[in-house]
Amino acid sequence: QVQLQESGPGLVKPSQTLSLTCTVSGGSMSTGRYYWNWIRQNPVKGLEWIASILDSDNTYYNPSLTSRASISVDTSKSQFFLNLASATVADTAVYYCARGGRGHCVDGSCFSESFQHWGQGALVTVSS
Amino acid sequence: DIQMTQSPSSLSASVGDRVTITCRASQDIRHYVAWVQQRPGKAPKSLIFASSRLHPGVSSKFSGSGYGTDFTLTINNLQPEDFATYYCQQYTSYPITFGGGTKVEIK
Q: Does the pLDDT value for residue A31 go beyond 80?
């Protein structure tokens, strides 16, 4: 059974980069087979999708993050990553990583077939 | 962005009841809706994708339906472990968006 586990600093100072790692075990990270995703949750915005990656040529981001987010994957380490630059208090949230299968494509954009497997979540607080 | 509106935002039900939660999309999303369950203090768990298809291992007490803009999640024979918050999610237009959640509480 595939398992995902988020890791990273629990406290980040404003204006710094928030960096998280998701380690995948019990399943394949073969390039192009699955979508790897980041989602966050806080009481203000609820569940908010951040980014998805199929491979380095197929990445998608939430425009609301104004280009601050960067997602990448290292299949040799069974890990994928999130960097969120210029963190603010509003980025305080529980961050989840998730895996989804390859889904459909519409008008040149392709999608994860929902988020079948989720990590446990990692609380990140942005505060000075 | 596609808005996903759930109703009700909360409901009270008894063990053994059947409950239905609705989700309305602000535009046609065909059948690209997923439902997730979140128990208090826990990570979300995926239940349903493509409007009505159960993920492997999910109890058949959960069922989903709908197409276009209107979707429902039905839970039969409510048990203590089913008291949780349920979210719908669309995945056919970026950014992917979630509903605000429906909290199912014990009456």
A: no
